[in-house]
């Protein structure tokens, strides 16, 4: 969907089309990720794309430092090997890692466990936190000083503009929009539709709410509020509480602005407003919608 708004698109490779090394923070396994297939179409490695752009700007050597993709992988892995050695951990060299594909790091177990804020807990004066007071702050003078009505200097309950406790709720249901289980955000949505066929995203609804609205399992429903409307496939289930519906994110937005999203994109229903003047986080989970059979 982002590419639809771009003037220039540089198609990049997926993890299956390039060499890499992977490890999550605090993960005890490090994996070599061999290239499985050649890049499809005009796709290129992200690094090669940016190296090419740097070259066009006359900064190619400054960006690459004379290394290609494999050169950087070897260089970064060598730095990791040295850091591990300083911690008393011996790592295989790059080629042996590639041969085995993975290595288990001896960082699990009680003897390697890391306790958050351990130093602060042991000696708060010697190891203060990165707060103005150096302590755990239940009240923040700095935040209070901003004078934001929607974000005072202490934790407080502030009723959302849309929620089940609202006196004007009527028959509306509370919408939550979790991450999808069959794709990463909106990535690979097109591939999923190639396999399953083009159809709206599933919305989870409790049997009690479905019966009250004449909605059957598998039926196409319309979800609507003052901001927009979308279609979805009803999945009637006890796995969700009454009064709440769950429509995952990720469906590609279709049609013109203001049109009904036939793919089931919850963004047409949620408010485009930050959580507060301070945080400006996503407020997508404070949304009320009406659900009815489409027709």
TrEMBL record:
Swiss-Prot/TrEMBL GO biological process terms: anaerobic respiration
Q: What is this protein called?
A: Asp-tRNA(Asn)/Glu-tRNA(Gln) amidotransferase GatCAB subunit C
Q: Which organism is it from?
A: Roseovarius nubinhibens
Cite the entry's keywords alphabetically: Metal-binding, Molybdenum, Oxidoreductase, Transferase
- Which cofactors, if any, are listed as required? Mo-bis(molybdopterin guanine dinucleotide)
Which Gene Ontology terms cover its molecular function?
Answer: electron transfer activity; molybdenum ion binding; molybdopterin cofactor binding; oxidoreductase activity; transferase activity
User: Molybdopterin dinucleotide-binding domain: which residues?
Assistant: 173-287
Please give an example of a GO cellular component term from this record: outer membrane-bounded periplasmic space
| Entry's family note | Belongs to the prokaryotic molybdopterin-containing oxidoreductase family.
Which PANTHER family does the annotation name?
Answer: TRIMETHYLAMINE-N-OXIDE REDUCTASE (PTHR43742), TRIMETHYLAMINE-N-OXIDE REDUCTASE 2 (PTHR43742:SF10)
Q: Where is the Molybdopterin oxidoreductase domain?
A: 2-55
